[in-house]
Design brief:
By secondary structure, this protein is an alpha+beta fold. The protein has 2 domains: 51 residues; 159 residues, Immunoglobulin-like (Sandwich), CATH 2.60.40. Helix content is 21%, strand content 43%. The protein is built from 3 helices and 11 strands. The strands form 2 sheets. Strands 3, 4, 5, 6, 8, 9 and 11 form a 7-stranded antiparallel sheet that branches. A 4-stranded antiparallel sheet has the order 7-2-1-10, with no helix packed on it. A hairpin with an 8-residue loop joins strand 1 and strand 2. The two termini are 50 Å apart.
Length: 223
């Protein structure tokens, strides 16, 4: 007799069969054991599906940044302005997946102020982020009298922020990522808004508040 038929026939702890025409050779302990086995197997299958069949997007944060110079020379018109700067930033790329390595192609790094790019010179070599691990990207850029196409509102914003010594700068990393074992190559952008306190290089740096970055991925199968 099948287990479930035995179990259905049982009534109470004395195993009386009551209305069932069958032999009661099951008990509640057996039923409980089978229930536990089913739950465990279901949990294992769910974990395997998540680990091997589902991929999660990376998570990114700007962990540290230092601005040692940021000086604007307004032009006439404003789009002819130039900027001199020196800054360093550290970004963490966390892989939340349980099984798959995330492989990043070379990362092109750009910095913008008030929507206008002022540096795109940095390129970070390709790197891997192991499952449940974090890869760290550190970038340092500097320049003197580099063109920055600000409008009049952008120049006014710079003057207002210059009065406080705190500047809003955007850092962007563009790359192509691939989940190891999958063929899809996914164009990806990491955008980090940085609020930077201008500091004297001869003085201890101001503490930087860790900032969450935005991940933009191509909407395609496998990404």
């Amino acid at each position: 007799m099948a287990f479930w038929e035995d179990w259905r026939c049982c009534r109470g702890k004395d195993r009386d069969c009551c209305s069932c025409d069958c032999d009661c050779d099951c008990d509640w302990a057996t039923a409980l054991i089978w229930a536990v086995i089913i739950l465990v197997l279901g949990g294992v299958i769910a974990v395997l599906v998540i680990a091997f069949g589902v991929v999660f997007a990376p998570k990114a944060s700007a962990d540290d940044a230092l601005l040692q110079r940021f000086a604007l020379s307004p032009g006439s018109p404003a789009s002819n302005s130039t900027v001199s700067y020196a800054l360093t930033a550290t970004v963490s790329l966390r892989n939340p997946n349980m099984y798959r390595v995330i492989q990043y192609g070379p990362l092109s790094v750009t910095f913008s102020y008030n929507g206008s790019r002022f540096d795109d010179s940095a390129v970070v070599p390709a790197l891997d982020a192991k499952p449940r691990k974090t890869a760290t990207v550190r970038v340092s850029v500097s320049g003197v009298d580099r063109p920055v196409k600000l409008g009049a509102p952008g120049v006014a914003e710079f003057r207002a922020e210059n009065a406080t010594g705190v500047f809003d700068v955007e850092m962007r990393l563009d790359t192509v990522l691939q989940y190891k074992g999958r063929g899809a190559k996914c164009p990806t952008s990491v955008i980090c808004p940085l609020q930077l306190q201008l500091v004297d290089p001869d003085v201890a740096a101001t503490a930087f508040q860790k900032t969450k970055c935005i991940i933009l991925r191509a909407k395609k199968s496998g990404c």
